[in-house]
Amino acid sequence: MALLRSSNPLTIKYAISSFTQSSRFYSSASNYQNILVSAPKPGVGLTLNALSSPLFRELNNALEEFDNDASTGAIVLTGNEKAFAAGADIKEMKDLTFSRAYNTNFISSWSSTIPGLRTPLIAAVNGFALGGGCELALMADILYCSSTATFGQPEVKLGIIPGAGGSQRLTNAIGKSRAMEIILTGKNFSGTEAGQWGVAAKVFENAEACVEGAIEIASKISAMSRVATRAAKEVVNKSQEVSLREGLEYERKVFHSLFGSKDQKIGECCIHYGTDDTSLG
Which residues are within 8 A (CB) of 112 and not within 5 positions of it... i.e. 6 or more apart? Predict the structure, then answer.
């Protein structure tokens, strides 16, 4: 899995990568043990392993660091051509009892941080995104994938169900009937189908084009006003939680509030003078 952070157009700031234990790397820039933080180019943020609680703790820490960095305008989460994230580490779950899972609130950390991020998150999915990997992709604000990507919630084959939001977010994305078919049978669906069903915003021919497309959209987003993009993300997410009437009222209040921002005044100046130079004012 990889995490890309965009701070300005066409730049890459950080790459975070995780590896199997037999080839685990450590970065002098951090204390991460399951992911590697490096800086291949000045400018966006990259992580490949079976998903586990230790990995998510480090991923959450990295995401929070990016989210709190004023220079970060967007984050891209991706993997390699073979897998975005192939699912949970079965070894972590095989000896779990109900008492231990319940008392430790097992898997809660997997979805505790991403929903609260203020910075837009783009998932670039190639290869397998199964189980927790599919759930992780669904948490993103924008999902891009290649046509050969494979999504699925196969938990029923292990005698369990999705536990990190799959039953909720997948149903919201594709409807009850399709979600039931996939979750009750453990059936996979392709990247092409993800695009047709509305899971993915865009489908690319290959993995390279998918990641490039995600970085490009991250660069476009990061060039926009930080306060406006964060507000836009907030109101869109609110639409998934409240009634239409409540959502419209909330949207209007946030819309009104933005007239108090310096970015709005600069934006109006740019339109008035017919320029994209946001340094005006």
Answer: 60
- pLDDT tens figures, 244-273: 999 999 999 999 999 877 776 665 656 545
* Residue-wise DSSP of 86-123: --B-HHHHTT--HHHHHHTTTTGGGGSSGGG--S-EEE
Tokens linked to 110:
């997997």
Report which DSSP code applies to 42.
S
Reply yes or no on whether the pLDDT at 216 is more than 80.
yes
Bridge partners for 74 per DSSP: 6
From 88, 140, 179, 214, the catalytic residue: 88
Q: Residues 13, 57, 163, 111: what is their CA dihedral angle, to the nearest 10 degrees?
A: -50
For 146-158, the pLDDT digits (tens) are 999 999 999 999 8
Q: Which residue is catalytic, options 132, 166, 191, 267?
A: 132
